[in-house]
Amino acid sequence: MDLTVIWAGIIGFAIIAYVIMDGFDLGIGILFPLFKVGQDRDTAMNSIAPVWDGNETWLVMGVGGLLAAFPLAYAIILPALYAPMIAMLLGLVFRGVAFEFRWRDPEHRELWDRAFTTGSFIATFAQGIALGALLQGITVEGRAYAGGWWEWLSPFSILTGFGLVVGYALLGACWLNWKTEGGLQRQAVTYAGRLGISLLVVIGIISLATLTLEAQYHNRWLSFPGVLATALVPIATIAVTIFFYRSLRQTKDAQPFFWALALFGLCLIGLGISIWPNVIPARVTIWEAAAPYRSQLFMLIGASIMVPIIVAYTAWSYWVFRGKVGHDGYH
Amino acid sequence: MIEQEWAIILARIQFAFTVSFHFLFPAFSIGLASYLAVLEGLWLKTNKGVYANLYRYWLKIFAVVFAMGVVSGIVMSYQFGTNWSVFSDKAGPVIGPLMAYEVLTAFFLEAGFLGVMLFGINKVGRKLHFVATLAVAVGTFISAFWILSVNSWMQTPVGYEIAANGQFMPGDSWWTIVFNPSFPYRLIHTLLAAYLTTAFAVGAVGAWHLLKDKSNLGARKMFSMAMWMAAIVAPLQVVAGDFHGLNTLEHQPVKVMAIEGHYQSHPEGAPLILFGIPNSKEQRVDYAIEIPKASSLILKHDADAPMAGLDTVPDADEPPVGIVFWAFRIMVGLGMAMVGIGLWSLLARSRKRLYDWTLLHKAAVAMGPSGFIAVLAGWAVTEVGRQPFTIYGVLRTVDSASPLDAPAVAFSLLAFVVVYFAVFGMGIWYLLRLMKKPPEAHEAPPSDAPIRSAGITPAPQVLSGDGVPGDARSGEIV
Fold first, then answer.
1. Once rounded to an integer, what is the mean pLDDT over residues A252-267?
2. Can you give B373-416 as a three-state secondary structure string?
3. Which residue of A has its CA nearest to B411?
4. CB-based contact B255:B383 (threshold 8 Å)
5. B475 has pLDDT over 60
6. N or C: which end of chain A has fewer CB atoms below 10 A?
7. What is the mean pLDDT of chain B?
């Protein structure tokens, strides 16, 4: 078995885990100023306070895994995305400390709430821009990035940036629908309804734009007979959207969140179809960037033992804080 | 080419700035997590309220420290790539897996159980909550284990081969890489440093409150516990530091030359320069106060042992002497002061004056930041002393950096400086404010937030005027 493929799968898993888990808590940050000051904001914040740190660890896992398994990709991607990466990190600083600081300093709570929102927005926007910049192609020469420090900026990357903001906001609204009650929940449902359709539109535009970026993407999606398989992705996207709205109309608590996640899952599958087997889209394959066999094997031993354990205690931690948050804590 | 040099200098400043700021937090949280585990363990064992109150007092502080450690730590995991991409490409196959192990075995453990530790006491019960505290404490250890292994490998690289594409390839044995020659010494030295940092911070808080109220039970308990740590760990650290220094002499003799200010070789026993001003231009230490032959005695255990100086090293391979020289003296000076406080506390204890010797309390308050300063100084010694290499003797710093334009790095450095001083400055201010509050007999849980304090408590919330729950429930876990 090819360890490089396994490691591509593990990194992919870390990215999916990150989007699933940190997406909604960044999304709550994005929606935060829309919630009423006081109880609603406190409840929204409290619904993610016990888990945000674990969620964000998947981001470190993704990048740490990349360094370990595909050091060349790590060494090319991060300088290429220098400005968005620095912006993301600083955004995460603001929102991360806001979880603690807003309670520590009630006189400046408004300030830290704003830091929470700004940080969440910037981090999300930067992640979206990073994705767009990778998809549109970066300049590589030899073993290094060879473009300038503004190469990432384009209408397409701005579009993917906003796309991710809409997507995470949708996840955040769905999470609040699941975890809260009363006025806040009704507010979340309204937002989820609006964001769902917005996301569908953005996904459509980004998908079509992606096809024009590289011949590889175009051929992957549209050449016969592959198109018979790839066409399933947009069809499934429409179907999932329909299920999403049905569950929302039936005032289900948890279901809309999982349908929204399914929407993200389909986007990631689409992404995989476009770029496989490259780790830097249309530039560097996973095998070219792969760490030597010994490095991959050593880590695989650790990952195969630790990842199930991590998933288990993460699940336990979510279970401890299960149910509605309520105004006076979890019931 | 000049711009490239600027880009590298700025990248070095940025790394030094962000890693120094970052390390302040783990230096505190490693020790504090263990302290919290001890407090909760004692509470479980003795059922004494004072331990529960101290636990909650320091848990609030821990939460703020930990949050700052997490967000400043994420920056580090990206900065290897953003600013040191050539290093990352080359060293990735060796250090990448070690850092991945850190994430897998430590970060997830800490983060996964932190939520329960901070907010879960009323949801999981006392014993399981203690398990969560232990998990977080053990996580901080494991994290230190891996990241210090990485750092040590960069100081004393072994067990690798260099591939045709320039990458460092792991050899047969990962054990050799992980347990590289300087790792055990650096690990122990750093962990003890974290314990001392915490002990002196806790001790200063206890002393501060004793100066105001000698009868405060919580302040007495924390001061006493901190002084035991000072008395026991500070001398241990002197021994560990000595071993670490001998190890450095064996594997990185040039670093020791810089520490000692030995520009010239001393064939008949080298002097120990206590103070002086290193003058790299003239290759001598001005105004040196020195003890003849003492350096040879300490480092070689023979007063007449010859010692080579920087004159035996090509200029291009020398680290900046001044920083290393001064940082070392700051670290050692503070270490000796810590030993002094530890001994003083023993004297006070034997005279039964531990809680009312005002001068001791004032000294302990003054020593509150000593651990943080000593730790940063120590890192400056070992990191600056490794220059001009990132991987000692093998990969130069100038050959490690990302192909970035200087303005890009200048902007990011400026952004880091502004944001870190603003955000972490506020955070440190909040920490000081929390510490200024005396430990109370009915210490409130970690946060004023409704969910955190309430948990599954069936009792209705008692709200104080501004809608924030007051102390009314705080007795419930005592």
1. 92
2. HHHHHHHHHHHHCCCCEEECCCEEHHHCCCCCCHHHHHHHHHHH
3. A83
4. no
5. no
6. N
7. 88
Q: Is residue A325 part of a domain?
A: no
Query: CB of A6 within 8 Å of any CB in chain B?
Result: no
Round the CA-based radius of gyration of chain B to a whole number and report it.
24
Question: Looking at chain B, which residue has its C-alpha nearest residue A294?
Answer: B170
Residue B285 reports pLDDT greater than 70: yes
Number of domains in chain A: 1
Decide if A82 is inside a domain: yes
- Shortest distance between the Cα of A140 and any Cα of chain B, in A, equals 11
CB contact under 8 A, B92 and A67: yes
Position B445 scores a pLDDT of 63
End-to-end Cα separation, chain A, in angstroms: 47
Is A327 a domain residue?
no
Interface of A with B in 147-186 (CB under 8 A): 148-149
Q: Taking 80 as the threshold, does the pLDDT of residue B474 lie above it?
A: no
B288: left (phi over 0), alpha (psi -120 to 50) or beta: beta
- Tens digit of pLDDT for each residue in B25-62? 999 999 999 999 999 999 999 988 899 999 999 999 99
Rounded Cα gap, residues A62 and B101, in angstroms: 12
**Neighbouring-strand partners of residue B161:** B169
ipTM comes to: 0.89
CA distance A200 to A64: 32
Amino acid at B273: I
Give the pLDDT mean for B170-191: 94
Round to whole Å and give the CA distance between B472 and B268.
Answer: 73
pLDDT tens-digit profile of B407-437?
999 999 999 999 999 999 999 999 999 999 9
Å between A54 CA and nearest CA of chain B: 5
DSSP state of B107: I
Q: Which domain holds residue A195?
A: 3-320
Amino acid at A130: A
- Work out the pLDDT band at B177, boundaries 50, 70, 90: very high
Q: What is the pLDDT of residue A48?
A: 86
- pLDDT at position B280 is 84
Give the nearest chain B residue to A102 (CA atoms).
B449
Its sign, for the CA torsion A94, A97, A99, A102, is negative
Q: Is residue A326 part of a domain?
A: no
Q: State the Cα–Cα distance between residues A37 and A163, nearest whole angstrom.
A: 27
